[in-house]
Every structure is written in C-alpha cells, then in structure tokens.
Amino acid sequence: MKKKTLIISLSVIVIIIVSITLFVFFVHPNEIMSVASPDGEYEAYVIEEPSFDPPNQSLFIRKKESNSFNLIDILAEDVDYIKKIIWSPDNKIVVFNTNDYLIITKISNFNSVKIGLSGAWEFKNKNHKTFTSYPPINHIEKIEFIDSVTVRVKFEKENTFKEFNLNNL
Questions:
Q1: Total number of domains in the chain
Q2: Residues spanned by the domain of 51
Q3: Running along the chain, 169 residues long, what does each successive block of 10 average in pLDDT?
Q4: How far apart are CA 73 and CA 112, in angstroms?
C-alpha cells in the first residue's frame, strides 16, 4: 500500500512539473487591445501576460515604423484591467481608462499622471496578506482635450469637470 501511495504521489508531482514547464515555455503574451494615434505615428496597446490568475496586463506605447516602445504601466494582476484607450485629436496625449485608474500620458516624454477611480485598498487582517478593494466609485462620463497639455474629465454623478494639466510632467 505504501508503494502505491508513493507512486501516485510521484506521478502527481511529475504532472505538476510538466504542466508548469509547458505553461512557462509555450504560453506567450498576447496583444489584447491596440489603438493607433489619429496621425498613425504611434500606437497605444495592451499586453496580457501569461498568468494562472488573470488579468495580468501591461500598457505600452510604440512608435510605428520602428522597434521602439515605452512601458507606461503594469496593472495590478488579478485586479485591474483595461477598458478603453483614447487619443487626443492632436496626438499629444493618450488616456488609458482601466477599471481602477485613468492614466493620462504625454507623448512628448511618455510621463503620466495616474488618477484613482476605485476606493482604497485595505488589509482585512494586519497579520495576513489578505486584502480587498471597494467597487469602482468613479465612472468616466466624458473626456475633453482642451489643448496639447490639458485634459478635462467629467465623472458620473458629478456636475463639474476636473481639469488635469500635464505641463509639469
């Protein structure tokens, strides 16, 4: 009976090791969303990295006709995910609207401002790594591009726009 248990245990371990090896070597990142700038010079895109507990997404901007790209942000695995990508008409600003953030990026230097849309994260028990988040509290109703460095955002259930100036980025 001990020999049978040992054989079953070793078989399970081998199956787990083979599964992990196959996952690591044969599962590759996928581009899940891509939006070209209005002039077609740049492309904002999202990569879904392989994960046992998706989503696991990263935000990028690449210049077309070249191999250069910029990592804008890595979203919280298993929690945050892309909803929409919006370009300004003059190609100077791109907005990544995720479940938890509005990430506004200035194309001239690829610097960003990150605006939280969800409630705060909190630890349920200080002695454990367990956490929770509140549901999103700010939904985007409208985004306006005022000029090449200013974005106005109207959130649902608010009467006024909030203005974000990217001059200092």
A1: 1
A2: 2-165
A3: 80 84 71 95 94 89 91 91 96 94 94 81 52 64 92 89 89
A4: 9
